[in-house]
Design brief:
By secondary structure, this protein is α/β, with parallel strands linked by helices. The chain is 37% helix and 23% strand. The chain has one domain: 3-Layer(aba) Sandwich (Rossmann fold). The strands form two sheets. The chain has a six-stranded mixed beta sheet with strand order 6-7-8-3-9-10, sandwiched between helices. Strands 2-1-4-5 form a four-stranded antiparallel beta sheet, with helices on one face. Helix 3 packs across helix 4, helix 3 packs parallel to helix 5 and helix 5 runs parallel beside helix 6. 42% of the residues are buried. Bound molecules: adenosine-5'-triphosphate and magnesium ion (MG).
């Protein structure tokens, strides 16, 4: 069996006396599209923050391609190929989509050079348009972020976070705040983008229809612990998942 791209061993994180994560074990293989589900406060973002290096676990180990990266800072993990997006997009609202993308691209290429002057760079603009095109949002290049629909903002934010072509992408609620009409479109573009070269994705999602449709595997968290892990139909058929997370029993017809 090949080495998993990501392994979490007994990850625990306490804030004061409160355990936000409690002995979480999770394994992700190359090319998987893993959905993490759980109620508000279940520990989903905490787990992602630990994997991306934004938080150090109280105990436990994170392995990336077999290397122990526990506690390694996010900027170092980014260079190793781990990228993540946040629940709320991190964008400059009064700049265009292209300018935002150019900033991400220029920071990546030449972090020490003055950024503003790079906006003149024709090549940088071309690279930005190409990156936007990967996510099917090139047509919005000239639009101000403040004018964009939420779904396009989320895609832009993810395009910026992944401009270094990472091998492991962590997405915290890629469809949160997105209208129900737009949600499938956002996920389909992400599935197309990352499916193309089998980039491994771990995404947190509250919309169970989206999870059912797009996740190749589902990990369900409650009170900082994994209560189910497996194919979507198996996890959604689990009585505790239905009761605690989904809120109502899922019929066989719905999950088919
Ligand atoms: N920095 C912190 N300090 C104190 N408590 C925290 C901190 N970060 C998270 N928590 C607590 O840990 C628990 C898990 O938080 P987390 O953000 O991981 O939940 P979540 O599953 O992502 O929830 P949501 O679906 O609402 O985003 C929550 O009770 C939260 O209040
Ligand atoms: Mg969260």
């Amino acid at each position: 069996m090949s080495t998993p791209i990501l392994e979490c061993h007994e990850i625990a994180k306490s804030f004061g006396g409160f355990a936000a994560a409690n002995a979480i074990d999770m394994r992700v293989d190359e090319g998987e599209f893993v959905g993490i589900i759980g109620s508000n406060g279940a520990g989903k973002t905490t787990l992602l923050n630990i994997v991306s290096g934004h938080l150090k676990p109280t105990t436990g180990r994170v392995m990336f391609r077999g290397e122990d990266v526990t506690g390694v800072p996010a900027r170092v993990l980014a260079r190793k190929g781990i990228a993540r997006s946040f629940q709320v997009p991190q964008l400059f609202a009064t700049s265009t989509a292209r300018e935002n993308m150019m900033l991400a691209t220029s920071l990546l290429a030449e972090p020490r050079r003055a950024i503003v002057s790079r906006f003149d760079d024709h090549h940088l603009a071309e690279a930005a348009d190409e990156a936007l095109d990967h996510y099917g949002i090139a047509e919005h290049g000239d639009s101000l972020v403040s004018e964009l629909p939420q779904g396009v903002r989320k895609l832009l934010d993810i395009a910026m976070a992944t401009s270094a072509d990472p091998s492991l992408v962590l997405l915290d609620e890629p469809t949160s705040g997105v209208s129900s009409d737009e949600k499938n479109d956002v996920m389909q573009r992400l599935a197309d983008r990352f499916g193309e070269d089998r980039t491994t994705v771990v995404f947190i999602e509250h919309d169970m229809e989206i999870v059912r449709r797009y996740a190749t595997r589902v990990v369900a968290l409650t009170d900082g612990a994994v209560i189910a892990d497996g194919p979507p139909d198996v996890v959604f058929a689990d009585a505790t998942v239905s009761k605690v997370i989904v809120g109502e029993p899922v019929s066989a017809a719905e999950s088919a």
